Amino acid sequence: MAIQSVNRALDILFLFTNTKPRLGITDISNLLGLTKPTVHGLVQTLTSRGFLYQDPESRKYSLGLKIHEIGTILCSTLKINQVGAGPARRLADATNYMIRIAIWDRDEILVTFNVFPGSQTINYQQLGPRVPAYCSASGKALLSMMPSKKIEQYVKQTPLKPYTPKTITTVKQLKNELEKARINGYAEDREEYLPGLFCISAPIFNQNGSPYAAISVSGGFQFFSNEELDTISQQMKEAAAEISRSLGYFHQATPI
Amino acid sequence: MAIQSVNRALDILFLFTNTKPRLGITDISNLLGLTKPTVHGLVQTLTSRGFLYQDPESRKYSLGLKIHEIGTILCSTLKINQVGAGPARRLADATNYMIRIAIWDRDEILVTFNVFPGSQTINYQQLGPRVPAYCSASGKALLSMMPSKKIEQYVKQTPLKPYTPKTITTVKQLKNELEKARINGYAEDREEYLPGLFCISAPIFNQNGSPYAAISVSGGFQFFSNEELDTISQQMKEAAAEISRSLGYFHQATPI
DNA sequence: TTTTTCATTTCAATAATCAGAAATATAAAA
DNA sequence: TTTTATATTTCTGATTATTGAAATGAAAAA
Fold first, then answer.
1. What predicted TM-score, i.e. pTM, was given to this entire model?
2. Which of residues 35-94 of A touch B (CB under 8 A)?
């Protein structure tokens, strides 16, 4: 049983966009095909709770800051952040690079946690950004561990749009990358999404043994020597394994 | 007219916390004093929209990732971000430090935009973190431009809790800082919230001439020489003025 | 000033939701 | 296996929300 008024209230929230950030009652009424008294009641409720904000001058509405509050709570309730914060912090200090944790969400990579090296900087325990899986190290790390059926499905329905000259745009290239990731235990992103940004990422598994999240090390490409890559990837894989264990994952012992 | 079911749906969302990240129907029913069928309908609606997530195994509910999506939209619809992105990016590249834009929200500082120097790093056009006003450069920059009545009200109802050994904990010290900020045109934060973090921040005014937001430059304290401080604070004040003008603020000409 | 626009409120009929109690379903625990 | 706990569904009268048309209020435009 879906609650009509709740659905409509959520519909109203998603009417606001980059290009239409401010809406009036009549706008909303027209967009949703609802009467003005109905819209007014819903909008007033959302406004009284801080999910909408009414500009006193124009009387137009925009999204309210209470949305940020619930977003912060979402972030702190994510299990991966709760168990990943410690290992990520230690990895940041050990490597002196930015560390991120990300999860797979609707075929994209959603960053859930950011740590910068040195205790003098803030832990961004906050969500975002969202990045296509095929051109991020974490995306490839996760994809490489998914069943081949899922990979086929992914490449079939995902246009490999180039973001930089180095973005992978063919299925063959992508599959090669995934194979390499399976061998190395980590995936790479060599300026495939942002120029100058080089990342490596290792998958994190949950108690079902499914690839659930990924931890990544980001740095300027010029700073990663081959030797450094060996050291850092090793530390990163250990951090990933530690988090996987915290999530209840036990690596299968090799059968005799 | 407040819509009961919408209010209840929002109540449900705020039941989830750091310490209680997963709740069942009975839990929610008890916490809100509602019957189970009522709660179930609301929860199902929120789940179908992605605002809640039900774990298939435990059947418990937690906050859903759709909350992040609406948070992203909130961020991109904020006028201050829309007009501040350009100047902030240029300031980051000019100074080679992290730049942030923040607004005053319920006596706290809410960061709405982060830019890191160099095009190789990502613009965090995302909300958070939230920091007490009295121990952040942006908070002091904004507070310094508020009417003295508002300042009195602020210090009266805000406990000056220490975060570091250098946090300002007396009203007198804070007022001295505000006076200094008014003279300099920017405020400072010398490791008052996080050890090793030094920031300066200049206020941004809206078309009413009210202090509305602040732009800050963050860096390790050891990297700020006096000379550098002069240059950077000047560039920062110019960026702040540019954003203020974009918001419709015209600086009063000095009367003859 | 008058006109226009749109937010807000009113009202009564209609539709949707809720409470309360109880039944059924489902999964974990004993 | 049975027991236990809890999610989910069912039902009906009571409560609450929505519609549609119209009126009022309040600010901006002409």
1. 0.87
2. 40-42, 44-46, 48-49, 51, 62-65, 67-68, 70-74, 76-79, 82
